[in-house]
């Protein structure tokens, strides 16, 4: 990074969001990140960023509650003004999310709506809310999943929401091009982190199966994804736009 930049990362207190925050900080980017409920974890991430010599701030946000965005935006404006003396930020990484495993026949409307609100509706309207605060020439990176390319039973609802985000990202790129803002997708494969901990712990054979179906012979790590997001926020990726970049180690080729 050749200039001091500020990134906003949703769900930055754990998993992929945490690693992305730390990796961006290592590259000289200051971080504003959101957390859902674990303020202690958020404070720990903030401290880790500051140890790296970067500024950091965190804000509580439930990305599945669109009505809360009206209050969230002024909070971002206040943080930008008080901590950075700026009115804008440079990078938006829509990372926050939840998982759900249910076959199509057993998917409840409640589960479907929760996934819709967090994985797609929240991404759409939070991005909408923050666009006026994003600097021209900025970058939007939306986190999707390898499950939009390959299909595994039980993930129809989850993957459908991510597929919608991938389409939304193309439209962001088209509509924001005049401002020099790029929009891209990072689609992780299976990652061994707290997001999948329960599934991997209760079904250890799944880890071996995934590794056997991955060209590089292992399950992914959070650090495998953060560096890809950093690339898309870098000057080197300035001509990459409206693209889906899968980081899966070559799953199901």
Describe the model.
- With 253 residues, this protein is of the alpha/beta class.
- The chain has one domain: Rossmann fold.
- Helices cover 44% and strands 17% of the residues.
- The chain is built from eight helices and seven strands; from the N terminus they run E-H-E-H-E-H-E-H-E-H-E-H-H-H-E.
- The protein has helices spanning 15-26, 39-51, 69-84, 109-130, 156-176, 197-202, 204-212, 222-233, and strands spanning 5-9, 29-35, 56-60, 89-94, 134-143, 182-188, 244-247.
- Strands 3-2-1-4-5-6-7 form a seven-stranded parallel sheet, sandwiched between helices.
- Helix 1 (15-26) packs across helix 8 and helix 4 (109-130) runs parallel beside helix 5.
- The model has no long low-confidence stretch (mean pLDDT 95).
Defining traits:
Rossmann fold; alpha/beta; 253 residues; seven-stranded parallel β-sheet
CATH level-3 fold name:
Rossmann fold
Terminal Cα separation, in Å?
Answer: 34 Å
Number of helices, counting only DSSP H or I runs of 4 residues or more: 8
Number of domains: 1
Shape: globular
Content of β-strand: 15-25%
Q: How are the strands of the largest sheet arranged?
A: 3-2-1-4-5-6-7
Q: Strand count, sense and closure of the main sheet?
A: 7 strands, parallel
Strand and helix order: EHEHEHEHEHEHHHE
CATH class: Alpha Beta
Whole-number mean pLDDT: 95
What would CATH call the architecture?
3-Layer(aba) Sandwich
Integer-rounded radius of gyration = 17 Å
Helix percentage? 40-55%
Short structural summary:
It contains 8 helices and 7 strands; from the N terminus they run E-H-E-H-E-H-E-H-E-H-E-H-H-H-E. It is of the alpha/beta class and 253 residues long.
